[in-house]
Amino acid sequence: MRMEDGSIFLQEVTEKIKERIAQTEETLAAGQKEIENMHDYYWENYTEMDQYGYEDFDNRQALLQQENANREARLLYRRFQRMLESPFFGRVDFQYDGDDDTEIFYIGIGNFAEKTGSVPLIYDWRAPVSSLFYDYDGGPASYLAPAGQMDGLIKSKWQYKVKHGKMVYAFESDMKIDDEILKRELGENGDVRLKNIVQTIQREQNSIIRNTKDKILVVQGSAGSGKTSVALHRIAYLLYHDRKHLNSSNILILSPNGVFSDYISHILPELGEENIREMSFDLFAYRELQDTAADCEDRYHHLERQLKQLDACGRERYEWKQSASYIAETEGYLVELEEELMEIRGVSLRNWQKSEHEIVELFYYKFQDTPLLMRMDAVMEYVVDEYETLRDRSISEEDQFSLKEQFDRMYVTRDIYRIYSDFMERLGYPALPDVPPEKRIIEYEDVFPMLYLKYRLTGRAKQQKIKHLVIDEMQDYSYLQYTILSYLFSCRMTILGDRAQTMEEKQQDVWKFLPKIFGRDIKKIELKKSYRNTAEIGRYAGALIGIREPELLERHGSAVEEISFSKMEEAADLVAHYAEHDLEKYETIAVLTRTEEQAQNIDMLLRKRDLEPSYIDRDSSAFQTGITVTTFYLAKGLEFDKVYAVRGMEDGGIYRQADYICATRALHELVMVRISEEKI
């Protein structure tokens, strides 16, 4: 076996890809011409088409089929263009049991054959045979094909790096070489986008990506273990293997913020799949409560208050409102509301009446399982049906409006905000401000408790269209939030996070209560090894939160610097002094602070020093190269070549968590800057 074999195959397959690209261009041009001809024919002849519309229907169906064919051709064209850049990254030489010959399988970002239906020259990384590349070294191996388990012997395994159509390196791989390739890949500078990891997927990561049997998969991974990448590659794998039942519109990612969404948005298209919908759970809650209040705070408002020493009573109140105890209290309150919220009376329409007793029977017995604020609507619908049946005619809009008014008046209020405020007062907490809806702003501690109460009072249909939910940063979701999610979604889920990266005073292990909420059909997998930081940064970060021996890829770099200044201006001078050198060496540099006020301050100071940093706030939606200024909590999930972590004198609790998150953002260099005069 010679290393040159890969280079020869690269030349051959590149020419074949170019041929397929040319053929696909011809197909697209012909298809577009056919669509134009169909449009011309329709507009020239539509007035003479048969009166029953058969010809019109046939023409529209033909047009739809041609448009779908063009769409498929465009997707194929884009895949071939991507493959031209880097057709393959791996190779497995496999001898099946009972065979004398060895089969050669090249592995790439997608399948490629000389023509549709032919044996692939390159196999998609998600194909069953590709598991040989990820799960085995040389020796006995097997993979699960549609026909069953295929056993044999791996004679050799190669890893390649092809860039811009040129061979960069080729290694006949064993475990040592795998680490060398990882170091080479991870040692490159950061980008404005998360990297796809098909070339370097590790065995423990591959078991998660190819997991199809567990309905809910919980991935607990240390900072830099590749959790998010693994989750996205898992989605790509599931889409590839279940195209009949799953497409991109059936998947939802709950991500931390808009910048993080931008940072990961290219991964699925890069893997040959359409992008999927992403949003934050805070935004979802705001949309659900828009009919109740003008605005809702998000988690970052709550964090800023925490960082500025929110009183202990406030912290305890927030934690209680997110707990199972709050849910239990809510259920008790709902029982009381059955009586207190209602003033039931009889209804009448013209010369017809329905007595109070009859309405009570319907409300408390026949429709007792209907949510409280929707129940009277169900009673009214029943009464209207009865009225129309007796009179054998439909009720007029005017009479229906009259009945609606009578039924609505039986509620003391249907305002969720007022009901929730009353609930808080009964529990001994302050009532919410008594203001009209257009002036209401719901504090973050009340957002999800109020949303839970709303769903219990009004009901909420399951999100049937969503067939797979991805929850990132799982450690930042509370018991209450997971309960709401279980209420909304009954689909498969991938839940991932790192309890060490919590943004609370204490670390939270959500695994302790997830099985109680979602049931037994749930599996936990841990990713303990970190690949992001150099060993020096990884050990420093681990020591911040008491991790003595973190599992790290032994990629070495500069020692972590700790510098103290008296003023923020000196920190700005430091960043400005090294800016030119940093930007020549690296693509991404971050200045991370604890609070929004500090971030705004240092951003202004850097601009005064003729720098133009990219400032990220909670409304930002793009991640850029160069110098970035933001808070630690908005940097979660992102990574930078070099990080300056600027902080005040406070230590412990949430400040320790902030320092840990800042430190684990750094790929190659970390500078921890302490400002003695800086007060949170």
Task: Describe the fold and architecture.
With 680 residues, the chain is α/β, with parallel strands linked by helices. The chain is 45% helix and 19% strand. The protein is built from 23 helices and 24 strands. Strand 4 and strand 5 form a beta hairpin. It is globular and about 95 Å long.
Uncertain spans: none
Silhouette: globular
Main sheet, how many strands, which sense, barrel? 6 strands, mixed
Mean pLDDT: 89
Coarse structural class: alpha/beta
- Which percent range fits the helix content? 40-55%
Number of strands: 24
Please give the alpha-carbon distance between the first and last residues: 63 Å
Helix count, DSSP H or I runs of 4 or more residues: 23
Rg over CA atoms, rounded to whole Å, is 30 Å
Q: Report the β-strand fraction as a percent range.
A: 15-25%
Which properties best describe this structure?
24 strands; 680 residues; 6-stranded mixed beta sheet; 23 helices; globular; single chain; 6-stranded parallel beta sheet; 19% strand; alpha/beta
